[in-house]
UniProtKB/TrEMBL annotation:
<dbReference type="InterPro" id="IPR036812">
    <property type="entry name" value="NAD(P)_OxRdtase_dom_sf"/>
</dbReference>
<dbReference type="InterPro" id="IPR023210">
    <property type="entry name" value="NADP_OxRdtase_dom"/>
</dbReference>
<feature type="domain" description="NADP-dependent oxidoreductase">
    <location>
        <begin position="15"/>
        <end position="313"/>
    </location>
</feature>
<dbReference type="Pfam" id="PF00248">
    <property type="entry name" value="Aldo_ket_red"/>
</dbReference>
<dbReference type="InterPro" id="IPR020471">
    <property type="entry name" value="AKR"/>
</dbReference>
<keyword id="KW-0560">Oxidoreductase</keyword>
<dbReference type="GO" id="GO:0005829">
    <property type="term" value="C:cytosol"/>
</dbReference>
<protein>
    <submittedName>
        <fullName>Alcohol dehydrogenase</fullName>
    </submittedName>
</protein>
<dbReference type="GO" id="GO:0016491">
    <property type="term" value="F:oxidoreductase activity"/>
</dbReference>
<dbReference type="InterPro" id="IPR050523">
    <property type="entry name" value="AKR_Detox_Biosynth"/>
</dbReference>
Length: 316
């Protein structure tokens, strides 16, 4: 499967990233192993997780996803086949978002232990931390890179002004810059990324891997009325998508899906893959059947008319 360069890093990834937020939540360890096996055996190679996954589940404390991925990597002996992405900075019990050097240095050791690896390919600041200057956070990443603990750093959930400020500090202080951004972006949620943030990422050559790529599952077409919201644990969060615009997007997805004998989710991901400046969307699955759908999405090509129709239906 064709790979894409991830910004200015030397990492290359296939055009779809497996979202590990489900591991230890809606996918148990055995299921997670099956999903990862199918994904990698199909030629895809990037897995995204975070230390905080899945702390929100009753009985969990965070780190469950990384632990499952680490056990899978050890069992399969395939670390060299996987681009491993994880994140730091979420509340892991310290009561705040934290990107201070002391915290990062502790957190990376915990992640490396859970992942059973010597180095993380891409380490992302999960959230902005207004209490810690960019210079301190980037300095911590520089030390981790020098020690071989991580290869590259990036960020998630920054707006254009925050990203610009971080890039400026990196340049002025000769520190590692954020080479990859992970923004929320999908056919419905377009406004926060398109515009200044996308322009900056493209001008600076950042890799972009999008999260909530299927709008929490709404773009799968599974939820078309309030009566459908009980179909999964994410259903309640999808209520806001069931408006006139959301239904128009589903209609456009249905039309393109019919032409390609595909599923709406596959078309929604193919639209993202085709967007200027997007390296790859992140999407998760909880069954082998859903994983096969992600694999198909990675090779689905939409024509210009189909992209235009989806653009028009989803225009903010």
């Amino acid at each position: 499967m064709q790979k894409r360069g991830l910004g200015r890093t030397d990492l290359t990834i296939t055009p779809l990233v497996f979202g590990g937020n489900v591991f230890g939540w809606t996918a148990d360890e055995k299921t997670s192993f099956d999903l990862l096996d199918r994904f990698v055996d199909a030629g895809l190679n990037a897995v995204d997780t975070a230390d905080a996954y899945s702390r929100w589940v009753p009985g969990n404390s965070g780190g469950e996803s990384e632990t499952i991925i680490g056990r899978w990597l050890k069992a399969r002996g395939n670390r060299d086949r996987v681009v491993l992405i994880t994140k730091v900075g979420s509340d892991m019990g310290q009561g705040k978002k934290d990107l201070s050097p002391a915290y990062i240095e502790r957190a990376v050791e915990a992640s490396l232990k859970r992942l059973q690896t010597d180095s993380i390919d891409l380490y992302l600041s999960h959230w902005p931390d207004p209490a810690t200057p960019y210079e301190e956070t980037l300095g911590a990443y520089q030390r981790l890179i020098e020690k071989g603990k991580i290869r590259f750093c990036g960020a998630s959930n920054l707006d254009a002004s925050q990203l610009q400020a971080a890039l400026k500090v990196a340049s002025l202080r000769d520190l590692p810059r954020y080479d990859v951004l992970q923004p929320e972006y999908n056919l419905y949620d377009r406004a926060s990324y398109e515009g200044p943030l996308r322009d900056l990422c493209m001008a600076e050559g950042l890799g972009v891997i999008t999260y909530y790529s299927l709008a929490m599952g709404f773009l799968s077409g599974k939820y078309r009325s309030m009566a459908d919201l009980g179909k999964s644990v994410r259903g309640e969060g999808i209520k806001g998508y069931l408006d006139k615009r959301g239904l128009a997007i589903l209609d456009a997805l249905d039309q393109a899906a019919a032409r390609h004998s595909a599923k709406p989710a596959e078309v929604a991901l193919a639209w993202l893959i085709a967007q200027p400046g997007v390296t790859a969307p992140i999407a998760s699955a909880t069954s082998v059947e859903q994983t096969d759908s992600l694999i198909r999405a990675a090779t689905l090509t939409l024509d210009a008319a189909e992209i235009r129709q989806l653009n028009d239906a989803s225009a903010p």
